[in-house]
Amino acid sequence: MRTTTRHLVRLLSDIKRAHECRTLRAVVTRNTMRLATEEAAAESASPKDIRRDETRRSSAEIYLLPGSETGSRLH
Known about the structure:
The chain is mainly alpha-helical.
């Protein structure tokens, strides 16, 4: 195979690979946007679940860091 022909064959395969990469990137971007749209449209947590979570947090014990009132607890 002549040098020019070899060079053209290599160039053609590089062009084909670049086109495939560009196509794959477009598909990935489209799929990512579709997933983001689906997540945004998904239902949010029900008010009951939110209230339950807030109740759990408010009953947690909080320990103060060492300082003027070492070892005291807040409820």
